[in-house]
């Protein structure tokens, strides 16, 4: 029998393992209910405006969706004060990451990421045969000096998550500005802002002014999964200058964003009260967690996101399994290189 042929770079890839779904835990543990604190989802559920939009959009699912996301594109452009040609939509912001790696990487190109960070950067880059250079974090923050120092003539993409997943830390305006000036044109700086709604204020950087810089190559990614509560619909977008968006569109599959997601996202953008409520709830609950951890002298990382990373110690896996048996789904972090840590939404 002939050996099955596949891309050799797939040998380096370990498939992404998401947080356990509620229904799976209920089946496995014989439980009637469970609480999911593993995937940084919005506990409020979709807003009433979104549910109404979903009902309306569902009536047209016999038709292909708008491949160019015309109305959603106009809505996002108007909301952010950018031009429509600055925007590309993805099946979640994960797909925008894949657009970048598919469009700009060839075999043996170099990609720079932090370690640990969001796992999809590594997976998407390896799929294109790239060499991924992982720079260890320092005190649970990106070591930006070391990342800039890792740039070579072969570097094509640098991924930054701001705020970061899984640590919840963030890069300040001053830190980002300093870092950007060290990065040469021709290297894509991909800034993943999946959690930016939770980090606004203080010294968090405003990045929309960066996307049209001609002397740098910057892509921003954002999502409707977190603050907007649309994780199950898979809808995100990228922001960049038109030249880069044109290139990304060349690798975007047709009809990649379904019509229900488009309608729901338009409604979600208009419901600013819902987003404010979500951010307020997260802020209040984080303070409650902090007090709880402080009372038990448990080490944790102050977070600019909707999750908290904390040190559970040598028995972290045992604690994870015990919580799971009681229907509380957390994220065990050893596969991220964070032995002894758990993450909770």
Q: Main traits of this protein?
A:
345 residues; alpha/beta; Aspartate Aminotransferase, domain 1; Aspartate Aminotransferase, domain 2; seven-stranded mixed beta sheet; three-stranded antiparallel beta sheet; 35% helix; globular
CATH superfamily of the largest domain: Type I PLP-dependent aspartate aminotransferase-like (Major domain)
Total beta strands: 12
Structural class: alpha/beta
Give a short account of the largest sheet.
Answer: 7 strands, mixed
CATH topology type of the largest domain: Aspartate Aminotransferase, domain 2
Contiguous low-pLDDT stretches (5 residues minimum) are: none
Q: Which CATH class of the largest domain?
A: Alpha Beta
Q: What share of residues is helical?
A: 25-40%
How many domains in all? 2
CA distance, first residue to last residue:
49 Å
Mean pLDDT: 95
- Based on Cα principal axes, name the global outline: globular
Tally of helical runs: 11
| Beta strand % | 15-25%
Order of helices and strands: HEHHEHEHEHEHEEEHHHEHEEE
For the CA atoms, what is the radius of gyration?
Answer: 20 Å
User: Main sheet: which strands, in order across?
Assistant: 2-8-7-6-5-3-4
**Do you know the CATH architecture of the largest domain?**
3-Layer(aba) Sandwich
GO molecular function, one term: pyridoxal phosphate binding
Domain Aminotransferase class I/classII large: 35-345
Cofactor: pyridoxal 5'-phosphate
GO biological process, one term: L-histidine biosynthetic process
Question: Describe it for me?
Answer:
- It is a single chain.
- By secondary structure, the chain is α/β, with parallel strands linked by helices.
- The protein folds into 2 domains: 8-45 and 273-344, Aspartate Aminotransferase, domain 1, CATH 3.90.1150; 48-271, Aspartate Aminotransferase, domain 2.
- The chain is 35% helix and 15% strand.
- It contains 11 helices and 12 strands.
- The strands form 3 sheets. A 7-stranded mixed β-sheet has the order 2-8-7-6-5-3-4, sandwiched between helices. It has a 3-stranded antiparallel β-sheet with strand order 9-12-11, with helices on one face. The protein has a two-stranded parallel sheet with strand order 1-10.
- Strand 11 and strand 12 form a beta hairpin.
- Helix 2 (48-58) runs antiparallel to helix 9.
- The model has no long low-confidence stretch (mean pLDDT 95).
């Amino acid at each position: 029998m002939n050996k099955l042929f596949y891309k050799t770079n797939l040998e380096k890839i370990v498939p992404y393992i998401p947080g356990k779904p509620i229904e799976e835990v209920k089946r496995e543990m014989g439980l009637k209910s469970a609480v999911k604190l593993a995937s940084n989802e919005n506990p409020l559920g979709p807003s009433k405006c979104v549910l109404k939009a979903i009902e309306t959009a569902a009536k047209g699912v016999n038709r292909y969706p708008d491949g160019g996301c015309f109305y959603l594109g106009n809505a996002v452009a108007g909301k952010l004060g950018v031009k429509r040609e600055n925007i590309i939509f993805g099946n979640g912001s994960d797909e925008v990451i894949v657009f970048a790696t598919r469009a700009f990487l060839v075999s043996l190109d170099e990609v720079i990421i932090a370690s640990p960070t969001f796992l999809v950067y590594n997976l998407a880059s390896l799929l294109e045969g790239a060499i991924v250079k992982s720079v260890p974090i320092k005190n649970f923050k990106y070591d930006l000096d070391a990342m800039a120092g890792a740039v070579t003539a072969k570097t094509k993409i640098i991924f930054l998550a701001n705020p970061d997943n899984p640590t919840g830390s963030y890069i300040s305006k001053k830190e980002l500005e300093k870092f950007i000036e060290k990065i040469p044109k021709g290297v894509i700086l991909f800034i993943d802002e999946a959690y930016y709604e939770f980090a606004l204020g203080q010294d968090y950087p405003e990045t929309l002014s960066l996307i049209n810089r001609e002397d740098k190559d910057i892509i921003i990614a954002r999502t409707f999964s977190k603050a907007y509560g649309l994780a199950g619909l898979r809808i995100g977008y990228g922001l960049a200058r038109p030249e880069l968006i044109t290139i990304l569109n060349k690798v975007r599959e047709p009809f990649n964003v379904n019509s229900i997601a488009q309608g729901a996202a338009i409604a979600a953008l208009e419901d600013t009260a819902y987003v404010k409520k979500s951010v307020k709830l997260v802020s209040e609950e984080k303070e409650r967690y902090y007090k709880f951890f402080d009372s038990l002298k448990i080490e944790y990382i102050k977070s600019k996101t909707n999750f908290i990373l904390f040190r559970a110690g040598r028995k972290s896996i045992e604690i994870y399994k015990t919580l799971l048996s009681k229907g509380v789904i957390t994220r065990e972090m050893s596969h991220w290189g964070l032995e002894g840590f758990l993450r909770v939404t």
